[in-house]
Design brief:
The protein is of the alpha+beta class. A hairpin with a 4-residue loop joins strand 3 and strand 4. It has 2 domains: 11-37 and 122-160; 44-116, no CATH class. Helix content is 40%, strand content 24%. It has helices at 11-38, 121-160, and strands at 44-52, 59-60, 66-74, 79-81, 86-90, 96-100, 109-116.
Length: 172
C-alpha cells in the first residue's frame, strides 16, 4: 500500500518573513529618527559659487543635506539676484532645487549655500545603516513573493496531491 507524501508546510516561513518585515520596518524607522534628530546639531559647511542652470524647470545643487541658500548671482554681470527672483526648495533627501521665479533670463548663475557636515559619525552611522536596510528592502519583496508562492504551492499539494487511482492514506 502506498502512502501519500505530505507537502512541506511553509506556514512557519511565511510567519518568519512577516516578523522579519516588521522588525526591519521598526529598525529602519528608529535609525531614520535618530539620524534626523541629530542633523541640526551638525556643523555647517559653506559652498561658494556653484554654477547652476537657473531655469524655470529648476536645477539641483550638488551637495546634499542643505540648510539654506544664501545668495545667487549672475556671474556675467556680477549682479546679485534678489531672493524674490528665485525659489529654493529642499526635498526629503536634503537636496536643494533652485528655480527661476521670474521671466528674467539669467545667462550664467552661481549660488552660495550652506549644508550640514554629514561626515560626523553620530549622523553617518545611522544614515549608512538606514541605507543598508533600504537595500535589504529591495530583496525583501523578492523573499516575500517567493515565500507566498511556496505557501500557495504547499496548499495546492496538500489539497490535490496524489489523486491517482491507487490506495492512499490521507491524514488531516
Amino acid at each position: 500500500m502506498k502512502t501519500k507524501q505530505n507537502a512541506v508546510d511553509l506556514t512557519d516561513l511565511a510567519i518568519g518573513i512577516l516578523v522579519l518585515g516588521i522588525v526591519v520596518t521598526i529598525g529602519s524607522s528608529i535609525l531614520v529618527s535618530v539620524r534626523d534628530s541629530t542633523l541640526t546639531d551638525l556643523d555647517t559647511v559653506s559652498t561658494v559659487n556653484e554654477a547652476t542652470t537657473f531655469e524655470q524647470a529648476g536645477d539641483q545643487l550638488a551637495v546634499t543635506w542643505g540648510k539654506s541658500v544664501d545668495a545667487c548671482m549672475n556671474t556675467t554681470s556680477g549682479q546679485t539676484i534678489l531672493a524674490g527672483n528665485y525659489t529654493a526648495t529642499l526635498d526629503d533627501f536634503g537636496v536643494f532645487t533652485v528655480q527661476n521665479a521670474t521671466t528674467t533670463e539669467w545667462e550664467a548663475v552661481s549660488c552660495n549655500y550652506t549644508t550640514y557636515d554629514t561626515t560626523r559619525a553620530d549622523w553617518a552611522l545611522p544614515n549608512d545603516a538606514a541605507t543598508g536596510i533600504a537595500e535589504y528592502g529591495n530583496w525583501f519583496d523578492i523573499i516575500v513573493i517567493v515565500g507566498i508562492a511556496g505557501l500557495i504551492l504547499s496548499l495546492i499539494f496538500l489539497a490535490f496531491g496524489n489523486r491517482g487511482g491507487g490506495q492512499a492514506n490521507q491524514a488531516y
